[in-house]
Write a structure and sequence with these properties.
single chain, mainly alpha, 6 helices, binds protoporphyrin IX containing FE
Length: about 140
């Protein structure tokens, strides 16, 4: 019954992002760091940008979900309860000033998530290059 009211609202989006990225996405990134930690030569290991990526993604996801998706979702749910299923999905709903403000509030959170992804990519590439040059060195000087 609850699903009739909230189905396909921003509450679904809040749940999707928090659950998909918050659980499995972050877990996958953690596994990636673990593997890179194992294969990277000790002298080349530098966790700085992985740490930054961790903070950026987590803070970004929190801002995205708590500062934007949940507030819009609850306003939508209230509209569905008071005015019916269609009103909560109508363009008029999305054009309300308060809904517009919360929609724009997504920008900083999403920006942080994107910066987190870029930091992770840069850190991963630089570590993979260190692994590659270490392998080239050991080929050049066989034991
Ligand atoms: C980490 C585990 C989970 C992941 C990755 C996940 C992911 C998702 C995603 C992506 C959707 C949207 C599907 C769509 O729009 O077609 C969804 C919907 C839904 N999830 Fe989950 N979910 C998880 C756990 C749960 C749990 C534990 C519950 C209940 C306690 C739950 C209840 C629901 C419900 C009721 C919907 C439908 C919402 C709607 O009708 O709009 N999910 N989930
Ligand atoms: C800056 C980052 C992101 C932006 C701007 C973004 C934006 C969006 C948008 C616009 C939608 C469609 C909304 C709609 O149908 O009304 C969506 C859906 C979805 N996103 Fe994201 N997203 C981002 C990151 C992510 C990440 C990192 C994940 C998971 C790893 C994710 C998982 C999903 C899922 C599962 C859906 C489908 C939800 C549903 O079926 O209702 N997103 N996202």
């Amino acid at each position: 019954m609850l699903n009739y009211y909230e189905h396909g609202t921003y509450l679904t989006l809040a749940h999707s992002h928090a659950a998909t990225f918050g659980a499995f996405g972050l877990l996958a990134l953690g596994l990636g760091v673990y593997i890179l930690r194992v294969v990277t030569p000790e002298a080349a290991w530098d966790p700085t940008w992985f740490r930054r990526s961790f903070r950026l993604s987590n803070v970004g996801l929190t801002v995205m979900v708590v500062g934007s998706l949940l507030p819009v979702g609850f306003l939508q749910l209230e509209t569905v309860y008071e005015e019916g299923f269609a009103a909560g999905r109508d363009l008029d709903f999305h054009e309300r000033p308060l809904v517009q403000t919360f929609s724009w509030a997504r920008l900083p959170g999403d920006g942080l998530v994107i910066c987190g992804a870029l930091s992770f990519t840069a850190a991963a590439i630089s570590h993979l290059r260190a692994v590659e040059s270490d392998e080239a060195d050991s080929r050049a000087t066989p034991a």
